[in-house]
Design brief:
With about 270 residues, the chain is mostly helical. It contains 10 helices and 2 strands, in the order H-H-H-H-E-E-H-H-H-H-H-H. The two termini are about 35 Å apart.
Length: about 270
């Protein structure tokens, strides 16, 4: 769980780190759309190449990015198995002992699903949490959601809550690991037994975890009050955000990438999702 990407900031001097945080939020949304535009082998090859280029330009170690996929391995494996056995098409293998059929289309769909989920996590992690500090992300979200102020929406409070939630994900996962190690030292077993037994074994973890989370929330609220924090009204910023030409160029590159994927879906090669 320490490898979870959300909430972790990796300090480095890279072109992506220097981009305006508002531009990175927009680029992250566009990149998510791009991951769902891919429908054939050519498109997914381009998508994997884009993820490698993002890793190269962000100057984030590849092992750190790959480690962020650990928490979703169960989801990846589960969705892959469903695609392998539930997609119909050309029979590739029929094991007699299993009494089931494996289809070529199912294997392709499983591969595409693995790539899509993995690159989705990698891309959003690079654009947002790995290269953007929590304060910059708060300012970016508040600016992008500022039109909602017309409807009296608490935009600043909403942006602050989202950023604090992202920031405390690694903290809570580390706290969970500490509690689990403490319970294991007392003889707790979380890996054997029936599903109900293992679920009951998690209760000694959840209760102290919730207590710790509430204590951290109260401490954070007290610290913000002691610093005279009263929301976004009349708040000034030390670093005022300004768009630069490179920010618009970066956003246009992501848009051009999406257009390229659209044409690859129509004129590309390889297996195509139905």
């Amino acid at each position: 769980m320490k490898g979870v990407a959300f909430g972790q900031y990796y300090a480095a001097e890279s072109p992506i780190h220097r981009l305006d945080p508002r531009a990175k939020v927009i680029m992250a949304i566009l990149y998510i759309v791009c991951t769902f535009l891919c429908k054939n082998l050519a498109g997914f090859i381009a998508l994997v190449a884009s993820a490698l280029l993002l890793t190269l330009f962000s100057k984030i170690p590849l092992r750190l990015i790959l480690r962020s996929l650990r928490p979703i391995l169960v989801i990846i494996i589960f969705t892959s198995i469903i695609n392998v056995f539930m997609t119909r098409g050309e029979v590739l293998l029929t094991p007699e002992s299993w009494k089931i059929k494996i289809y070529a289309e199912g294997l392709w769909n499983a591969l595409f699903m693995i790539l899509r989920i993995s690159i989705l996590i990698i891309g959003t992690g690079i654009f947002l949490t790995y290269t953007t500090t929590p304060i910059a992300l708060t300012d970016a979200l508040e600016y992008l959601l500022s039109p909602l102020k017309v409807f009296k929406a608490p935009v600043h409070d909403f942006a602050m809550m989202m950023t604090i939630a992202l920031r405390f994900i690694p903290t809570l996962t580390e706290e969970t690991e500490k509690i689990m190690n403490a319970q294991k030292a007392r003889g707790a077993d979380f890996t054997t037994g029936s599903l109900i037994k293992r679920a009951k074994a998690l209760i000694p973890i959840l209760i102290p975890l919730f207590v710790s989370a509430f204590n951290r929330a109260f401490d954070l609220a007290s610290a913000m009050e002691c610093r005279c924090y009263h929301g976004g009204k009349g708040r000034t910023r030390l670093n005022v955000l300004h768009y630069r030409a490179v920010d618009f160029v970066a956003m246009m590159l992501v848009v051009a990438f999406g257009v390229g994927l659209f044409f690859l879906n129509r004129y590309g090669f390889g297996y195509t999702l139905s």
